[in-house]
Design goal:
The structure is a homodimer of 334-residue chains. Chain A is built from 8 helices and 15 strands. Chain A is an alpha/beta fold. In chain A, strand 1, helix 1 and strand 2 form a beta-alpha-beta unit. The N and C termini of chain A lie close together (10 Å).
Chain lengths: 334, 334
Amino acid sequence: MIQHLAVVGATGAVGREVCTLLGRYSHRVKRVSLLASKRGAGTRIPVGETVVEVRELTGQSFKGVDFVICCAGGEVSRQFAPIAVGEGAVVIDNSSVFRMEADVPLVIPEINPGDARRHRGIVANPNCSTIIMNVAVWPLHQANPLTRIVVDTYQAASGAGASAMEELRVQTADVLEGRPARPRVFRHPIAFNLFSHDTPIGPDGYNTEERKMIDETRKIFHQPSLAVTATCVRVPVLRAHSEAIHLTFERPMSPDSVREILRKAPGVELVDDVRGGRFPMPVDATGRDPVLVGRIRQDASQPDSRGIALFACGDQLRKGAALNALQILECLLD
Amino acid sequence: MIQHLAVVGATGAVGREVCTLLGRYSHRVKRVSLLASKRGAGTRIPVGETVVEVRELTGQSFKGVDFVICCAGGEVSRQFAPIAVGEGAVVIDNSSVFRMEADVPLVIPEINPGDARRHRGIVANPNCSTIIMNVAVWPLHQANPLTRIVVDTYQAASGAGASAMEELRVQTADVLEGRPARPRVFRHPIAFNLFSHDTPIGPDGYNTEERKMIDETRKIFHQPSLAVTATCVRVPVLRAHSEAIHLTFERPMSPDSVREILRKAPGVELVDDVRGGRFPMPVDATGRDPVLVGRIRQDASQPDSRGIALFACGDQLRKGAALNALQILECLLD
């Protein structure tokens, strides 16, 4: 039983999704506090059967709180997570600031639930694209070790927050009516356009989002030298990410065995209807828990039947963020 | 000098783009006939400085015609290309029906212009995604032979014709106003959505678009066993395709040498401004000739510096179709 759960950043896209999903946990949570910036304070947000008023986040917000879900971005996490931990709370942090720290577990409950308990106050929620890929890829890796992952993403606006989703809607309406696209949240036009994920690029040429997919996968899998490459791209989709994935296995792997494994895999829904032409799509993943996986086929470019290609979609706000955070909370309670 | 050029399918998206670009060739073409179905006959379309009225395509349309550019789809090509050839014309065919025939050259003028002359009446214009990828990849392959290409596409609506572009606009407006997406041209919703390219899937699990990218690349490169894999995806973009490409070379290849080669490569524009955050985007490729290439980096997942990742965008109607067809015409004249 949780005596007092605080959600930091409750008015944001991920925070609101946490509130929506908290309805499922009402029997395990006695009290919920919703916290946000001064601007968001006073907002009333439904949490299960009740409506909770958002209060302003301050250094005093965590007294008596036993769990915090932090969804307000890196700067807020960096400032307030240590305060919450100092007050005795366990923080599940959705930002990237603690993810690669050695004493912070990085957890996808379908993969490494045991890591969650090895925390020192903070458990990190992985990057959304990383979660969606790895829910699909991990069960295969268990059956036949992976030697390389190539992934190219089709990432929704929601990954940049509620204001980015609004920008996609408003800018698209503008363009349809002949007005110019005016980028504000994103650096580039998003209406009827796409662009390389607009995070900083390191000296190795990878942007931060791609680097997260590489480094976080290695940490979650406990395989610090797993070969992973990624190209991350923002597309004009609202809230579900898609990923084209090309895998190399140690031993031969057949599409049928991949389907067999994924049919039983936790968090996965097989959507691979060749006859009906039905495969994973963002509109079908939106507002749902599972990662949809399909287009499973032998990768014809790899020798000895060791290659598999597939396509996955998952709701960025749900399994990519809020749901995974709540599943981490469950790991900590069990 | 061309005495009489006929454009079949002049009222379609590619046909109209051919008409636009024909302005550049007015000094080399004496007479232009525009042909389309009965429904399109009577339409007046600008060709360079003049306006030409579309006439109905019939078996009699090719008398005295020396070159035909066919952009009306597979069934029309299958029926009328042989008639035009019988009348002594050379047909540049934009459909896929003849592309893999042994006696039909498949030509990207930047790559295999010499093949164009080995025709027996028909020269095939490759698939749009294939052209855009290979303009970027071929010059690298010349410097250091490729052993594997992995490509994931982000394909615009224009690839399915003018009606698909209109569907993207209308459906997006519908969704923005709270009405349901009503797919007609595409099988699936395209507004704020994406989907696996909706062409038939073969017994190997690849769809026809992916199979084209694999088989046509091998034919154009004259390398029937080159390892290529592709995942083709339709995205809500109007008329420029994007592609995330992961290359494996025989020998080590540095990002700097890739940039050096592509800076001088015909048909390529290097857009790889890490400092300014400027990389290839559909809005920047739209209405322009070159294939934009950027995000060039060492693929960290491949040993011995033999891997390169990059991102390319090209206008699907222009270099992906109309421009390449006209460049083939130039090869035949030279």
